[in-house]
Amino acid sequence: MGAVTTPSHHDSHAHGPEISWEVQLKSNRLGLWLFMFSEVFLFAALLVARFVLWYDADLGIVRPELSQELGLVTTVILLFSSFFMNRAEMAMEYGDRKRFLNGLLVTAVLGTLFFIGVVVMEWNILGLQGELFGIELFGHLKPADGVISGIFFAMTGMHALHVLTGLIFIMVVWNNGRNGHYSPEKHWGVEACAIYWHYVDVVWVFYYPALYLIGTAVHAM
Fold first, then answer.
1. By three-state DSSP, how is residue 95 classified?
2. I need a labelling partner for 78 at 20 to 30 A (CA). Which of 54, 85, 110, 193 fits?
């Protein structure tokens, strides 16, 4: 009869104590919120720079001449994307995988349209000119045009970068969901993606009026 071996004290603690799902979830949430809180300083610094540097002794607070229609349309698109992201997250909480996947796809499409509206049309990286139904489709600012364009590209560029990473995040979560990786009980990836996307939307809620509405419209200086 073979000898019976019992786990040693060292073996029982070789891999450390097992962390429960609830504890891990709280740690994940704390880490994500700390990350986003740190990003607040970056976005806030650009916002402060906008009001400090976009000031004229005669006109007061100024802003660049931008397409008001394009700015409003892209903002509405981004807000709708947040609505569909919320629907997708709620669908996963109730186990409705089809509506979850469809909601993520709609969010990704709307986010892509916003990205195109800002980066392709407002930045006018294609060097195009034109209007549609009286709406100016392409901007005229260039990064080297002066302090107004410099701040504009810094603010919209940093936000567009976060939109792009959010879109990648959405597609990763969509692919994981399509392969059955989430459940109503455990779907931290979905929750994290939704929080991040809503955060990007909230930043634009502050950036949109600062860029398009507040101040006297002037040419780049």
1. coil
2. 54
Tens digits of per-residue pLDDT, 128-185?
A: 777 666 667 777 788 777 888 899 999 999 999 999 999 999 999 999 999 989 999 8
Strands 216-218 and 60-64: what pairing?
A: parallel
197 near 163, Cβ under 8 Å? no
Cα three-residue angle 12-13-18, rounded to 5 degrees:
95
CA 38 to chain centroid, in Å, comes to 15
CA-CA distance, 156 to 116, in Å (whole number)? 12
CA dist., res. 78 & res. 75, Å (int)? 5
- What is the reported pTM? 0.86
| Domain extents in the chain | 43-52+65-218
Which CATH entry fits the domain spanning 43-52+65-218: 2.10.70.10, 1.10.10.10, 1.20.120.80, 3.50.30.40?
Answer: 1.20.120.80
